[in-house]
Amino acid sequence: MAKKGFIDIKESNEGKFTAWAKKNMPGKSVCAAASTVMKQKKKYKPSVVKMANFAKNFGCSTKKK
């Protein structure tokens, strides 16, 4: 059972956006690639936009205490 509040990603989907970012935006970090995609949503496929949004919301966010 997953911990409460933890986002569960299917194994088949793990690393998809990272691989896409490395292939299509070499030299950029995954978070920078996600930001670029989110700024220009019409330029990218809806599936890439969804992955970028997820990466930006859950992978790139930093919690300051």
Seen as an oligomer or otherwise, the chain set is single chain
Largest sheet: none
**Helix-strand pattern:** HHH
Content-based structural category? mainly alpha
Percent of residues in beta strands? under 5%
Number of strands: 0
Mean pLDDT: 86
For the termini, the CA-CA separation is: 28 Å
Radius of gyration: 13 Å
Write down the overall geometry: globular
Q: Tell me roughly what share of residues is in helical segments.
A: 40-55%
Uncertain residue segments: none
Give the helix tally: 3
Question: What report would you give on this structure?
Answer:
The protein is mostly helical. Helices cover 51% and strands 0% of the residues. The chain has 3 helices and no strands. It has helices at residues 16-24, 30-39, 46-59. Helix 2 crosses helix 3 (46-59). It is globular and about 30 Å long. The termini are far apart. 15% of the residues are buried. The model has no long low-confidence stretch (mean pLDDT 86).
Compact description:
The protein contains three helices and no strands. The chain is an all-alpha fold.
